[in-house]
Amino acid sequence: MIDKIKEQIAEVSSFTTDNLDAVEAFRIKYLGKKGVLNDFFAEFKNVPNEQKKEFGQTINQLKQAATEKVELLKQALEQNASEEKLFGDLTRPGNPTELGARHPISIVKNKIIDIFSRIGFNVSEGPEIEDDWHNFTALNLPEYHPARDMQDTFFVQTNPDILLRTHTSSVQVRYMENNKPPIRTISPGRVYRNEAISARSHCFFHQVEGLYIDKDVSFADLKQTLQYFTTELFGKSKIRLRPSYFPFTEPSAEVDVYWGLETETDYKMTKGTGWLEIMGCGMVDPNVLKNCNIDPEIYSGFAFGMGIDRIALLLHQISDIRLLSENDIRFLEQFKSSL
Ligand code: DAH
């Protein structure tokens, strides 16, 4: 008889279900009025006296096991039910969350910042709505200077002193006014020019300006820095500096990188020359240093400026600059795998 009870105990402890009706059936089977337990209790009077103690204890074990099991299963089912109320069906398939993509301008900008930060350049920024001093005059472009026509300017309302900056060179001026050499900074940002919009040019675009001021900075330092930069960004180290003119640098140069002429695209991009123009640069004009309270007798430096949009078009083979500001999701989605 005791063995029978023990069998029942084993059965009770291995029982499991996730159905509330089955729990109730289980309860009735063991603990109900006509249940297994009562049957055993009814046997009690027939058990020989010397076995009564063990028999009683075993029945109690069975009772305890069955009562605990019912409690446990009920609790588990109630918890599941309340979780389901809170979170819904936990086994349903997840919502596919779309992965975002960085804008190609941000991708290229971040790459440029990363490359220059590795050689000690910090990042500085300035306002897009500028005054005449920071955008022109301090950069050695006094009023009526013909070189002001190189950049067709948007003025704000009728005040000729307030304008949308035409280049990030304005940030050079602000940085020099507020910091003492040695200076090593790059300034990314959006600029505006009153130009007809086409596949190749827009009335707003993005530039990165670079500025390095210290004692004994030479043109050779400039060339080394640019060579490091083009190697890191394009994987191309062959560059050439063509003499050019900017009012804020003397001497000034235009930087071309040798792209090569291996594919038809190379041919198209470089107009058959193999060379691509990527930026302007030069040694900071002593007048500009003076305007920013830096003594040109003690310090010298170089500066450079490049267009981010053009580089993004190049690196990602984008055919029309307008795509960069149209926010067409089908275009933007294509940059998911980029950095
Ligand atoms: N500001 C010039 C432009 O927008 C680019 C430039 C050229 C910046 C030479 C410089 C520089 O700092 O040294 O066309």
Query: From N to C, what is the helix and strand string?
Result: HHHHHEEHEHEEHEEHEHEHH
Distinct compounds present: 3,4-dihydroxyphenylalanine
Biggest sheet architecture: 7 strands, mixed
Low-confidence segments: none
Task: Tell me, briefly, the overall form.
Answer: rod-shaped
How would you explain this protein's 3D organization?
The chain has 339 residues and is an alpha+beta fold. The chain has two domains: 2-87; 104-335, Bira Bifunctional Protein, Domain 2 (BirA Bifunctional Protein, domain 2). It has twelve helices and nine strands. It has helices at residues 2-14, 20-31, 36-43, 49-87, 104-117, 132-135, 169-178, 219-234, 264-269, 286-291, 308-316, 329-332; strands spanning 122-123, 129-131, 162-164, 183-192, 204-214, 239-246, 249-258, 275-284, 300-307. The strands form two sheets. The chain has a seven-stranded mixed beta sheet with strand order 1-4-5-9-8-7-6, with helices on both faces. It has a two-stranded antiparallel sheet with strand order 2-3. The longest helix has 39 residues, at 49-87. The chain is rod-shaped and about 120 Å long. The two termini are 75 Å apart. The structure holds 3,4-dihydroxyphenylalanine. 3,4-dihydroxyphenylalanine is lined by residues 167, 169, 209, 246, 249, 280-282, 303-305.
